[in-house]
């Protein structure tokens, strides 16, 4: 992913509240438009970098279950 995209997305959401982030994520998912995926990827990357090993493990275990079906 291009770092300019990361920087632009980060700048656009700087200072947003938790409720606003939730709305952004839910809206992006409900639209199902692929051009919104890089933004969700930036959110995920930031989350991953700030998460503990336990949080990361719980997340990947959840992914394993979700994608097993």
From TrEMBL:
GO terms for biological process: asexual sporulation; sporulation resulting in formation of a cellular spore. It is found in: Spore core. The gene is sspI. Coiled coil: none annotated. Belongs to the SspI family. It holds the Pfam family SSPI. Induction: Expressed only in the forespore compartment of sporulating cells. This is Small, acid-soluble spore protein I. The lineage of its organism: Bacteria, Bacillati, Bacillota, Bacilli, Bacillales. InterPro entries: SspI (IPR017525). Its main location: other. Keywords: Sporulation.
């Amino acid at each position: 992913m291009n770092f300019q995209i990361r920087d632009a997305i980060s700048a656009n959401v700087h200072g947003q509240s938790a409720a606003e982030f939730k709305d952004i994520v839910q809206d992006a998912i409900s639209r199902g438009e692929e051009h919104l995926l890089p933004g969700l990827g930036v959110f995920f990357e930031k989350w991953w970098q700030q998460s503990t090993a336990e949080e990361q493990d719980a997340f990947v275990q959840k992914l394993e279950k979700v994608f097993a079906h």
